[in-house]
Amino acid sequence: MKITRRLRWLLAGGILLMTLLFLLFLFFATKNFLDLWDRLLLLPHWLFYSYSTVIVAVMGFSGWLIVKLVSGGRSPTTLKRPIPKPVTEASLTQDIAQIKAAGMDTAPLEIEIAELNERRTAGNAHIAFFGDISTGKSSIIKALLPEAGVEINLRGGSTREIREYTWQTLAGDHLLLTDLPGRNEAEGTLDAAARDEAIRAHIVVYVTDSDLSRTQFQDLQELAAFGKPLLIAINKRDQYTAAEQVQLATRIRNRFDSAQRTGTNERSASGVLPPEVLFIQSGGTEEIVRVYPDGREETIQRPRKTDISALATHLQTEIDQRLESLTQQRDTSVLNLVQEKLDTTREDYRRTQAEKIVRSSTHKAILGALASVSPGTDLVIQGVIGTRMVQELCKLYDSPVSQLDIDQFLNFTQGKLGKSIPLLLAVAGNGLKAFPGVGTVAGGLVHAVAYGLIFDALGKSVAHTLEQRGALNAAPAAATFQEMLSGNLEERTKTFARLVIEQYRGK
């Protein structure tokens, strides 16, 4: 207790001393400033303003320098985030022509654009039906189109592929109805195809026969994020009383509101309005047990009453009031879909070509190393091959690069490589021992395996950095190089040892 009290008195005395010192400094600084100000006022006007301008300029330059130093701590990738340009059909057509000229497969992209133009010409409203198996999608379409001959499989999963039907409403509008495979259907189309169909549609209808499961709710959040009108059609209406229907619809809307407020899904928190909830009866059959007076029981099937008027009326209202805006949304969504597929095509092509460039350069480095005495820790011996590889990779990723950038990157890798050379040589030597007859050959073979490891990691680190950052940033690329150089070293050594032996025997 005494020690604690003594510390408190020491802290109190220190605070008092610091306060007195600060006040003393403040008094002296104020006195000096006022003296300086009085002297400045005695100067001629031109000298007063000149002196004041110099002071302001010095303070402004200091502030600018501080801002530059502080902002310079951020990574270059966060400083230059280009604002994405809106996707247009003209820009897409130009991009498709460019990647086609580069040798990429653009057929799926061209087909998507052609189908969009066909649907524009036809002028039909496109309605996509989603839902798990056995929830009534096919039954609803059959109720809308009794002449379409949709087969209903009572065991579930009647939709095995994407099917399209045209429905003419009572008002004379033509609607394109798309029946999509159930999400959990083992033999159905992949979810990616169903997702693309939602993007192509004007309106999305999600069919269920009960409250939403967690998986169904996740699907609905993703569908809602496309910005299309989303209807939830709850089938088997006769299983719910009027009060239960209101309660169920309210609970579903509240789940969407809660998800958007809390941001549980990045795509759901986009301000999309909660979906409309409708209750329908798609027909079909139901099993009942008939009990006779003598106690006998008989299970029979009888048809359910069909009533999809709520869905048909809502669809007609949407078409009458919002068809033009829905068409614009549909066109924008499809163009964004094409852009997404175009980017994926370009990324896949670049990865494939990057692998070829790295493989070819590594092969050249191995051939060069077979004649060398020792692997150069600064890549001087293989400098031309390394520089050429980096240039080709940067060209592939449309990233301008100067010789200074390449030299800086190679200098960084030199520092990372220096401590790894003895380990690489040792591992390469052990790897060659696995091949009888050549395992004891020293010199060129060991060095060639080491160079294979070096150039493979070097090229892959450059490609990885260009793909992730869009530019050859020397420091991150060198760090990635170090990681790749030591990763899975044993397996990679065997691979390059086998390649070196083949080259050595083929001389």
UniProtKB/TrEMBL annotation:
Residues 126-236 form the G domain. SUPFAM superfamilies: P-loop containing nucleoside triphosphate hydrolases. Keywords: Membrane, Transmembrane, Transmembrane helix. The keyword Transmembrane applies. InterPro entries: GTP-bd, P-loop_NTPase. It comes from the Bacteria. The chain crosses the membrane at residues 7-28, 48-71. The keyword Magnesium does not apply. This is GTPase. It comes from Thiothrix subterranea. The lineage of its organism: Bacteria, Pseudomonadati, Pseudomonadota, Gammaproteobacteria, Thiotrichales.
